[in-house]
């Protein structure tokens, strides 16, 4: 197949050729970024939390007015919740993964350090939180009974006086690279050292949005929170008993004190599903955009190719009269489309990086991996060949007699 006749024909139909190139370039640029965003969103949705999500159920409540006996009532609540049949562990805490509340602190390695080494969320454990969430301890130990302290609302969190902590593996790697974290010390905004006694494999923070709030940066402190400050009760049960345990837990809490409001009663699985609802919607929206773009691009190629075939009936007739076979006519149009698609893909790749740069600066998205470009190129090359096949076959099927009469 000689390229000179094809290039000569394209030069005589610059507008139509430019439209196809532009359409393919635009589709390539958008689809490469859209597929990348879809992959990022799916990875985020599937991110492991470290929690036994099918076994943990959560009741979120708040008090009405001021309760001077909130700490005592919290202890009664926990004793009653742990007695519910099917409950293997229960704890009160200030936040849960994918929940609405998030307590965050800057972590330093020295008391005089002015800039935090990292930002971490702080789970406050009243006892059994690690067991209730089903978090796996990767190193060290859990908290001893004499290490728990009571939170005093009048003194605030910094006066809680806890001296030990359990941290996530991500925090351990960031704070003490290449070393065992157990026995190491860090600080949370004051000069009181906190010793690491354990490392959990994974524990996501409730909310992760800004760049410095990485999902896996979590710390657990042994602080007993009254329900009117913490607000979350976490219970561990089996998946088949979740619904019944949740109902029993609400009854127990209402019986202990009717002057409270149950804000939420959900499984940890429901918290995750609701947290990522927008991400799932975005994935489907991007998929719809990709499909729409591919359909529009394919229809555009079919339309222009059909128009070209009609316009070049005489040219086809001459070639057929001179002995050109159907296969040669077919290859002619396929090669022509391949050249146009290649030019469009090259321009589209440049556009894809340009769009990615804008997304990186506006939404702190990561850089588009180069792998997505050849994938996008293969998709558009294939789409172009499939789309042009029908018009090309019609051109190749023009009988020599008809072609001769049309000359």
TrEMBL record:
Superkingdom: Bacteria
- Please list the residue ranges annotated as the ABC3 transporter permease C-terminal domain: 289-400
- InterPro entries documented for this protein: ABC3_permease_C, MacB_PCD, Macrolide_Exporter_MacB
Segments forming domain MacB-like periplasmic core: 63-224
The listed locations are: Cell membrane
What are the protein's UniProt keywords? Answer: Cell membrane, Membrane, Transmembrane, Transmembrane helix
GO CC terms on record?
plasma membrane
TM stretches of this protein:
16-38, 282-309, 338-359, 371-390
Which one of the record's GO molecular function terms can you name?
transmembrane transporter activity
| Keyword Membrane set for record | yes
Q: Name one Pfam family in it.
A: MacB_PCD
Keyword Membrane in the entry? The reply is yes
UniProt topology in membrane:
Multi-pass membrane protein
List the PANTHER family hit by this protein, alphabetically: ABC TRANSPORTER PERMEASE YTRF, MEMBRANE COMPONENT OF TRANSPORTER-RELATED
Q: Which family does it belong to?
A: Belongs to the ABC-4 integral membrane protein family.
Q: What is this protein called?
A: ABC transporter permease
Per the UniProt record, the source organism is Agrilutibacter terrestris
């Amino acid at each position: 197949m000689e390229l000179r006749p094809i290039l000569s024909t394209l030069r005589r139909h610059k507008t139509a050729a430019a439209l196809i190139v532009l359409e393919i370039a635009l589709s390539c640029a958008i689809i490469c970024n859209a597929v990348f965003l879809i992959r990022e969103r799916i990875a985020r949705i599937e991110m492991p939390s470290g929690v036994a999500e099918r076994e943990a159920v959560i009741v979120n409540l708040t008090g009405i007015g001021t309760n001077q006996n909130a700490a005592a009532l919290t202890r009664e609540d926990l004793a009653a919740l742990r007695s519910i049949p099917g409950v293997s562990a229960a704890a009160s805490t200030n936040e849960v993964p994918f929940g609405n509340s998030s307590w965050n602190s800057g972590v330093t390695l020295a008391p005089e350090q002015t800039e935090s080494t990292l930002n971490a969320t702080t789970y406050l454990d009243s006892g059994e939180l690690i067991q209730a969430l089903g978090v796996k301890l990767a190193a060290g130990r859990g908290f001893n009974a004499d290490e728990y302290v009571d939170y005093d609302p009048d003194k605030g969190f910094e006066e809680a006086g806890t001296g030990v902590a359990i941290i996530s593996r991500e925090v351990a790697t960031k704070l003490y690279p290449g070393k065992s974290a157990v026995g190491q010390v860090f600080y949370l905004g004051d000069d009181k050292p906190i010793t690491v006694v354990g490392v959990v494999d994974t524990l996501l923070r409730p909310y992760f949005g800004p760049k410095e709030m990485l999902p896996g940066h979590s710390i657990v402190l042994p602080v007993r929170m009254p329900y009117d400050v913490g607000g979350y009760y976490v219970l561990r049960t089996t998946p088949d008993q979740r619904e019944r345990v949740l109902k029993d837990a609400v009854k127990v809490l209402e019986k202990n004190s009717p002057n409270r409001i149950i804000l939420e009663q959900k499984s940890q699985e429901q918290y995750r599903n609701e947290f990522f609802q927008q991400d799932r919607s975005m994935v489907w929206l991007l998929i719809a955009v990709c499909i729409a773009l591919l359909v529009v691009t394919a229809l555009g190629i079919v339309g222009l190719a059909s128009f070209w075939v009609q316009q070049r009936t005489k040219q086809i007739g001459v070639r057929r009269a001179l002995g050109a076979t159907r296969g040669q006519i077919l290859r002619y149009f396929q090669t022509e489309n391949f050249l146009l698609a290649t030019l469009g893909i090259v321009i589209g790749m440049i556009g894809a990086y340009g769009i990615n740069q804008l997304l990186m600066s506006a939404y702190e998205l990561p850089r588009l991996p180069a792998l997505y470009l050849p994938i996008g190129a293969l998709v558009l090359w294939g789409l172009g060949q499939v789309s042009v096949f029908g018009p090309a076959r019609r051109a190749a099927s023009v009988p020599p007699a008809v072609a001769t009469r049309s000359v």
